[in-house]
């Protein structure tokens, strides 16, 4: 069954999917940070957004509202402060 949003047909999400925003902890290996990640399920894809997490240690995706936070002690390459 398809859901209708403003007259547009929207395919249903997989069973057990969580449509609320998520919190993701990232490390230096995840940089440069972009959303969605390469491991995201196909149904959750949106245009790739590169996110600047270096300044504050946390950033929110403008498309899906996923919040990314740097793991404690993570050193951002090129920002040797």
What would your notes on this structure say?
By secondary structure, this protein is mainly β. The protein is 0% helix and 26% strand. The protein has no helices and seven strands. It has strands spanning 3-5, 8-10, 23-26, 34-35, 49-50, 58-60, 67-70. A three-stranded mixed β-sheet has the order 3-7-6, with no helix packed on it. Strands 1-2 form a two-stranded antiparallel ribbon. The termini are far apart. Mean pLDDT is 78; it is low at 1-19.
Compile the SSE list and pairings.
Blueprint: E1 3-5, E2 8-10, E3 23-26, E4 34-35, E5 49-50, E6 58-60, E7 67-70
TL;DR?
By secondary structure, this protein is mainly beta. Helix content is 0%, strand content 26%. Residues 1-19 have low confidence and may be disordered.
Biggest beta-sheet profile: 3 strands, mixed
Radius of gyration: 15 Å
Q: DSSP strand (E) fraction?
A: 25-35%
Q: Span between N and C termini?
A: 52 Å
Uncertain residue segments: 1-19
The tally of beta strands, per DSSP, is 7
**How much helix is in the residues?**
under 10%
Form type: elongated
């Amino acid at each position: 069954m398809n859901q209708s949003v403003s007259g547009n047909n929207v395919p249903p999400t997989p069973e057990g999917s969580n449509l609320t925003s998520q919190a993701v902890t990232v490390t230096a290996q995840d940089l440069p940070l972009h959303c969605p990640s390469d491991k995201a399920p196909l149904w959750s894809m949106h245009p790739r957004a590169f996110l600047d997490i270096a300044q504050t240690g946390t950033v929110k995706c403008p498309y899906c509202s996923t919040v990314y936070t740097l793991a404690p002690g993570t050193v951002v390459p090129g920002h040797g402060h």
